[in-house]
Design goal:
Number of helices: 5
Strand order of the largest sheet: 2-1-4-3-5
Largest sheet: 5 strands, parallel
CATH topology: Alpha/beta knot
Helix content: 40-55%
CATH architecture: 3-Layer(aba) Sandwich
Number of strands: 5
Number of domains: 1
Length: 157
């Protein structure tokens, strides 16, 4: 199974980008992992919030296959402990999925079309983080999940 993270916009902060890349590289030792960023929309000044979400949603949906299991990283999603998230990942690995796709929305969240396509929603926290930080936190937690599953010492219980 491939695990994929989809997001919108580039990471401006080189420190966050470098740390994100560290965890992406580490993930490669455990599972096939892809990270894809869709460029920011151009000329958003003339778009209202819903129009921007709709356009971003179309770009996100075009990156999905019908067979993908899609999980939105959403503030209203299910919250897990790190151990619980590792169990969630293990269940998906055992399910025979070809691709598990996690999506980080744009600055205003997701369009209704993206919500309708989603199979699940996961929340990293009740707090709000920048999209750049969410990328880092997510790849770190995914790496942590694999170290928990492999009973490795990265996660101290």
């Amino acid at each position: 199974m491939t695990i994929k993270l989809l997001g919108i916009g580039k990471t401006d902060d080189p420190a966050i980008q470098n740390l994100t890349e560290v965890y992406i590289k580490r993930l490669g030792f455990y599972n096939k992992f892809e990270f894809e960023l869709i460029p920011d929309l151009k000329k958003v000044k003339n778009l209202d919030e819903n129009q921007q979400k709709t356009k971003e949603g179309e770009l996100l949906l075009n990156k999905l296959n019908n067979s993908d299991f899609v999980v939105l990283l959403d503030e209203n999603g299910k919250q897990f402990s790190s151990e619980g998230f590792s169990e969630y990942i293990q269940k998906r690995l055992n399910s025979g999925l070809k691709q598990l796709v996690f999506i980080i929305g744009g600055p205003y969240g997701f369009s209704e079309a993206v919500y309708n396509r989603a199979d699940a929603k996961v929340s990293l926290s009740k707090m709000t983080f920048s999209h750049q930080m969410v990328r880092l936190f997510f790849v770190e937690q995914l790496y942590r999940a694999f170290t928990i599953l492999k009973n490795e010492p990265y996660h101290h219980r």
